[in-house]
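Below is the data:
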Amino acid sequence: MHDVVVIGAGLAGLRCAAVLAERGLEVVVLEAADAVGGRQRTDIVDGFRLDRGFQVLNPAYPALRRSVDLDALALRSFPVGVQVRTDRGVAAVRHPLRHPSSIARTIGSGLVSAADAVAFARWLAPAFTRRLSDRARDDRPLREAWDAAGLRGPLRTAVLEPFLAGVVAEADGVTSNAFVQELVRYFARGRPGLPAQGIAAVPGQLAARARAAGAEIRLGARAERVERDGPIVEVDVAGGEALRAGRVVVAVGPETVAELTPVPRPATNGLQTWWFAATHAPSASALLRVDGRGGGRRGPVVNTAVISHTAPSYAPAGRHLIEATCLLPRGVATAGEDEVRRHLAELWDAEVTDWQLLRRDDIPDALPTQPSPLRAPRQPRVADRVTSRATTAMRRRSRVRWRRASAPLARCSWTRGGDGRRGAAAVGGAHRAAGDRLVHRVRDGGDADVEHRGLRIPMRFHSRDRGVSRGAGRICRRGAGECGDRGGARHPPELVGACRRDRAGGRDDGHRAVRDSHRDAATCAPVNPET
């Protein structure tokens, strides 16, 4: 039996597995596909690196910086700005602080008037002065927020609307204003780019970290059913033996989550990416290009870029890779190749008939919808011992909230021993004794309850548990040396004796050996779950 089974080896599942394994839990990850990553995958086609849909990585996301070694990814950054196809030609709008020399050209393009600049600053200022939770209280659809700020000129219609349509995967302005403000704030702070070896390098790094921490990742293992059997959760695996665990984390896409949990299928927006190969690049610029011509969009393409200008490793020598992204609304016929090529020819003002179509990626669940008002993240616990961390895209920013997602796995309660000392009661998956909550009674001058399973590093709990977790961490660190795990002082006598018995029998796997020894020991006693 395992401590935790994680279903899904996408970004959320891998990050969750690494966090839990690093804290000493025995974790196994089930992935139905033949590789980790979910949607974050990269394929080699005719020598080109093709991601599953056009994706970028923004190093400004704090959770990403905490989870991934960005230097190892060798990120190739896009220029901070956008090219706009107008009725008069092509104009560029760049980040004014990063490219101050371009301010005069931007003003001369007619895309940014003084009134527009003031209205844009008025709209975006709350993203830097107010917390997201505060802004969510008076949230509204994006289009209404722009109207209220007075943003109605070409900066909105020719630049922001076409650019953000590809970012949030909808062009009607119904997305949460607070959410879009947060995205634009991160765009202003960071330089989005692409890993030199493709977007698959991100889950590859997360998987390596999870394995290094002791997590097992099984590929080609499709979970078919999750069922609770008393204090144990059983996971049926297609063509294999069912797994039993103390807890299960479901971290799959929206198309699968409803099959495994009582969570309804979340609403999503779709995107479609066309990948073309060309001998000659249609432009020398690496900027993303959008259609800002008056009268609304003139075709299906919401953005296009010469990817090989930003990341030369995406294309073989002497050739160029061009992406074209379209919206993919449900129940609406998608554009054909001829229409996409026609629109690209207008956007690039170039001949595109000789471009080779490498692949088309239809991603119906590219991004979760984020309507207003923006709501707080849903409680991930969907059933007793079952946690859902379903994710649909990089928009979740590889976010695994350890305090929320794993609180059911390890939560401490205050107890008071006979001599007045405080200790931590081990609960949840700390022991592997049919799911019972057990503590070890230490009788060396007190009756303190000491948790001795995986708290070498203090963990984050709910606020009412912080003092306990810190205290338990200190106790465990002092005794780690006697478990053969790390240098340190001695455990209380009864813990030392159990650990030494294990080591004498050839079992020297640290706290796990102690836990298994105590499973049947008389000194272990059940604790009331509500203590």
